[in-house]
Amino acid sequence: MTTRRIIVEPRGLASLGLTLAVPAASVLLALIVGAIFLALTGNSPGEVYVKMVDTAFGSQRGLSETLISATPLILTGVAAAVAFKMLVWNIGAEGQFIMGAVFAAGVGIALGSGTPALIAIPVVILAGAVGGAFWASVSAVPKVYLGVNEIITTLMLNFIALNFMYYLIFGSSSPWRDPEVSQFPSGRPIPDSGRIPEILDSQRLDYGFFIAVAFAILAWFLISKTKWGFEVRVVGDSSDTARYAGIAVPRKFLGVFLMSGAFAGLAGSLYVAGPVGALDPRSLDLGLGFTGIIVAALARLNPVAVVPVGILMGALNNAGPSLQSIRVPAATVEMLQGAILIFAVAGEFFIANRLRRPEKKPQPVAAAEGGEA
User: Fold this and answer.
1) Is residue 187 in a domain?
2) CB of 70 closer than 8 Å to CB of 311
3) Domain membership of residue 103 as a residue range
4) pTM score of the predicted model
5) Average pLDDT for 48-63
């Protein structure tokens, strides 16, 4: 009995059609898995999916809420994409997002209502980037100069940032806490001069969405069209080759790590200076940094592709609460996001490799009886 083996071999440069088909197939397969799960639990997959699409895109208010949800996901997705492109495993976008929100809210409160909006808004937004980069540096410096595993440090720092935010609002009388609210602690509102203005008749949507898109395009340009980005890609492909070529590898690692943290911090500043308006743990503890990893994976680490993927994930987040009206758990959205990530990661294997069966070896021709072999 012969065994048919399967050979895995590198594919080389994948075609454009394949690179577009894999993310689309990831979403489709996740929806199929979700449909099976919904059917087994006694729900109608068609009704659930129609409800989700209608909630996310069926009205002006729904579309606005989808784009509001997508804004931080675009930037946390860019943060993950930039880092992973260089094999810097920054799992700390959640903590960097929170620290960006802390810095932005603190600066907005400190500036007060007397600062002109033309000055206050850019300063508040950039403060978030500084906060995210600062929190990333706590992992970046040990990684670059001591070889400490950044996965562990960035993951642990997420929980430190989260508890620090809760302490500022619920455990202290910090400037971030609203002194006028005594019943239940909440964040002190950022003055209107430091808030990002809303788009006219937009149902809460502000210009933060377009700022996020602009930074995603900027990240793509830096990585794809500059000498610095070329060196980053070389380091990501082979750090030994980069050293041989004279590229300062530690400096590149540090720069990419801090840039990744800055993008995640920007997401936090746009969120508190936009729809939230204060350092409110209940509105910020949403796992947006972790969802950004899913966004980056589905976008195949392309900062521009992060934008439509971020909108898709924002639509899922926006549709989640509405499912309770048809007696479907909102956690169904998390299940779909997890399934999308699994299929996207699995799809990367088929983009990088191809499967084939070994060719059959020709059988020797038997010599005719009584003749020459």
Assistant:
1) yes
2) yes
3) 74-302
4) 0.89
5) 91
